[in-house]
Amino acid sequence: MNAKASEGIMVRWISWGMLWISLLPRAQAQEPQKELAVAEGPTREERLAWLEAADRYIRDVFTRQDRLQYPEAAQRYLRMLTLLDDSLTEAEARILAPHVQALEAIYPDARRSLSGAALQRWWQWQDPRPATPRNERLEEHLERWAYAIRHYSVGGKLDDRGLVYVCYGPPSRKTSVRLDHARYRQQVLDREPTLSLSGFPENEFWVYAHLHKDLHFLFVRKGAEGYRIGTSEELIPRGLYQSPRRVMALLRTLEEIYRQLSIYHIDYGMLYDELATYITAVESRIPRPELPSAVAFAQGILSKVQQQDLTVRERQQALRPPFYSNVLEEVDTLAIQLRIARFLNPDGVTRTEVYWSGPVATFRLSKAQQRRLERQGVDPAQAAYVLESSLLQYDADYRITAPAKFYYRLTAAALEQLQGWLAPQRYVVESPRDLYHLAFEVDQYATLPHRFSPEQAILVKLFAIRLDSLRALKADPELLEMSDLLPLWYDAAASDTLPGRPYPFVQLSPEVPLALYFEVYHLRLGAGERTRYEVAYEVRRRAEGGLLRRGELVQIGSRTVYEGTSRKAREYIVLDLQTWKDMRSVEVVVRVRDLHSGQEVWRAINFELIS
Known about the structure:
The protein has 611 residues and is α+β, with helices and mostly antiparallel strands. A hairpin with a 5-residue loop joins strand 5 and strand 6. The longest helix is centred in the middle third of the chain and has 26 residues, at 294-319. A five-stranded mixed beta sheet has the order 7-14-13-10-11. Strands 15, 16, 17, 19 and 22 form a five-stranded antiparallel beta sheet that branches. The protein has a five-stranded mixed beta sheet with strand order 18-24-23-20-21, with no helix packed on it. The protein has helices spanning 3-12, 44-64, 70-82, 90-106, 116-126, 136-151, 160-168, 182-189, 247-264, 269-284, 294-319, 367-375, 412-417, and strands at residues 153-154, 157-158, 173-175, 203-207, 216-221, 227-229, 332-333, 337-344, 350-357, 384-394, 404-411, 425-431, 435-447, 458-471, 481-482, 486-490, 500-502, 507-508, 514-521, 531-543, 553-564, 569-575, 583-594, 600-609.
């Protein structure tokens, strides 16, 4: 499809009740690839010197939170990871060890796939905004790591607090179980002269209620090892177990421990209530035959403590995500839909077309977003909203080869009045190599009217997706090849190259006049220099309804034989969706068989059905 035809399709969307947002001057931004000044000398001494300098620089930048230097420091970190491919000396391994330890906390397979190239790719996949030159998630990780190294490490190695901090950042609540207040001194310490506060282990209790209401960690100090994830039973001094005479001191200690923990989490509330009730009954001195002895009660409660600790630990393991990022916690998600289709150019280069759109409603701001703008001095009713859409192509080694950016502008008043969907937008990239990757991103900025700069605007919404490991179509003229299926809103009267308008949406209603466009390449010429090929399609759908029909796989389809004079064929199939009512999802499979060569190719596409 040429540019002129593409623009014609966009204009006609107006008559279909779709919305066209006026296009600002298109800017194709080539992001410069920063070259690092890495001293890669031929000697081990020079490489070690560079490693030491890079490590110091990273620690300094992220400790001081010098955000202007974050991109450079992150690049040096990635460069450090590449050295993991080589045979490290003991000194080099010592420098990299804290970084590897933190990486294993968020990526358990890091040790198993400990290669610089693999780790660099992994970090690329974690980038929440692949169209920007920065990797915000990596910068967040290094900032957390630098803080954890300063505050939660022993001998340069992170303890469990540091590893949890690297994974999830600061907790929503942090406290310690302390036994140095007057009530506990009066009831326990003053009555047990051989007990002292030094016998109670140091501890910290972290709650991550913003991740899950039941996610929390109890850390207990283990001497020279630093803090490790522990249990509430470990908070009890060993000396309290040595004599039945101290059983009430043990119970009062447990009561105090669970009283403090229950304030921060209900897990410990039931044990506290049981302990407090028993101790109150004992202290009342009212004879109660059913009341167990203190020793028997202590044995039972300790058994419950062990079971409770085991339950808590198992649940924490189930609840823990690999990591949590709050990089974009104030940025909402745009409900964007897109389709990609690969076609083969006459020169054998694969052309990838990306079509995307979104409902106008997704670009409207929530009340929370409007309040955020007001706090930053921007009136939501007077602001202008700019969409920055970006498409990046990477080669097989994830080097950017074709970045492109486009801008669209909309006023707040228009955003409130307009309905429908943004007219489908089309991007095209060419991929001469076999394996390539794509990243697509749409950013919505709020800015002052008549002025836009991404550096000064406020990011309010975002959509980003990576399309990894795409393959170029086969250019060998002896091999039958086929493009992907491109959905169209079918229009028999269309005068364009395509018989309709691109339909990038996953959802379908029975009223949509759907057609699937595709191209066939390298057809074999037979007698009379003519091609002969068969096109067959089948619709696979899962029927809903009664119990016996649920999940039943149903197929319908047809076969048609075509002839032509060109080795390339352009075809489309019009589908009647009225027969798909009451279905939840469908897969359409199109097969092409060259009747001269016997070769066959096929493509499939999926849709979700809505009423």
